[in-house]
Design a protein that fits this description.
- This protein is mainly α.
- It is built from 5 helices and no strands.
- The protein has helices spanning 8-25, 29-33, 35-56, 62-85, 92-109.
- α3 runs parallel beside α5 (92-109) and α4 (62-85) runs antiparallel to α5 (92-109).
């Protein structure tokens, strides 16, 4: 039987990557309990990042970015209101409506 021995730096790198992999995929208790809300929140964060990036690159004016951030903020507030009325959860239909709003905002960012 032939054994390969990895050089110390390669071994340490492999071990550290293996140790980080489970942590990167581990969802918090809240994310597991509220997957629909988590998805909507993740999308709002991604939209805000895209708006900031487009503003930084000069693709959006300050007024356009401010307006889009306001739309994202109102979508996030609507999600909170929906969840408050449903014991902390949103329904599939509510998630679909919020996704539709976020899709419309996304199309405005990507012009």
């Amino acid at each position: 039987m032939i054994r390969r021995i990895l050089p110390a730096p390669a071994l340490l790198c492999a071990l550290s990557l293996g140790a980080l992999a489970p942590a990167a995929h581990a969802a918090s208790h809240w994310e597991r309990a509220h997957p629909r809300r988590d998805q909507v929140i993740d999308r709002t964060q991604h939209l805000n990042a895209r708006i900031r990036r487009e503003r930084h690159e000069g693709e959006l004016s300050a007024a356009q970015a401010r307006s889009l951030h306001g739309q994202v903020r109102s979508t996030r507030q609507e999600q909170r209101t929906m969840a408050h009325s449903n014991g902390g959860y949103i329904t599939k239909a509510q998630q679909a409506a919020l996704n539709q709003q976020e899709n419309a905002i996304s199309r405005q960012v990507g012009r």
